[in-house]
Every structure is written in structure tokens, then in C-alpha cells.
């Protein structure tokens, strides 16, 4: 079985919970923590899940929002696939059953 993982990005919701409704509100708060991002970069960070982000930025966001990494990112299973056989069919899981050997004359 192959599990494809993804995640939900909750930055926008956490900002709204704290009364921050403009993406540009983050720019000076990040700068106070030594993170220099353009308004466009911050906009993308807020409006779409990032594929890459520095740990410094991630930690700064947690500090600004008073949250933990688990509050920002929620891991999710996106897709579950069964492995394919050489013929292209879905493989059925192999289950093992204990074998009992009985000798004649013994129970």
C-alpha cells in the first residue's frame, strides 16, 4: 500500500483568529524577527500552501501567531494506492497462515 501525503496550511485562519486580515500585516512582524520577505512573497505564503520554507520563517510565524507547528500544518492522506503487479493489476495483500504438521499416529 502506498500512501501519498499532503497537508492543510492554516496560516490564513490563524491570522484571522488574531484579527490580522491583510497579508501585508505580516511584513513588518517578520522583519522584526529578521525575516525579509516582499509583500508578494508574504501574499503567496498566506494564500497558498508553501512547497518550501526556511525554518527561520516557519519559527517566526509560530512566534508571531503564538502557535505551534501543529497549528500551522495538518498532515493529511491525499491518496492511497495498492501496488501494481507486473501485469498492471492491483496486487492483493498476502496473508500468512501458520502451518500445522501432523504426523501419523500423533494428535
Summarize the entry for a quick read.
The chain has 107 residues and is an alpha+beta fold.
List the helices and strands and how they pair.
Layout: E1 2-9, H1 11-17, H2 26-32, H3 39-47, H4 55-65, H5 69-72, E2 73-81
Antiparallel strand pairs: 1-2
* Strand and helix order: EHHHHHE
Mean pLDDT: 87
Strand tally: 2
How would a crystallographer describe the biggest sheet? 2 strands, antiparallel
CATH class bucket: Mainly Alpha
Q: If classified by CATH, what would the architecture be?
A: Orthogonal Bundle
Strand percentage lies at 15-25%
Termini distance?
40 Å
User: Gyration radius, to the nearest Å?
Assistant: 25 Å
Classify the secondary structure makeup into a structural class.
alpha+beta
Q: What fraction, in percent, of the residue positions are helical?
A: 25-40%
Number of helices, counting only DSSP H or I runs of 4 residues or more: 5
User: Total domains, how many?
Assistant: 1
Rough shape?
Answer: elongated
Poorly predicted tracts of residues: none
CATH topology: 434 Repressor (Amino-terminal Domain)
User: Strand sequence of the main sheet, in spatial order?
Assistant: 1-2
What can you tell me about this protein's structure?
The protein has 107 residues and is of the alpha+beta class. The chain has one domain: 434 Repressor (Amino-terminal Domain) (Orthogonal Bundle). It has five helices and two strands. Strands 1-2 form a two-stranded antiparallel sheet.
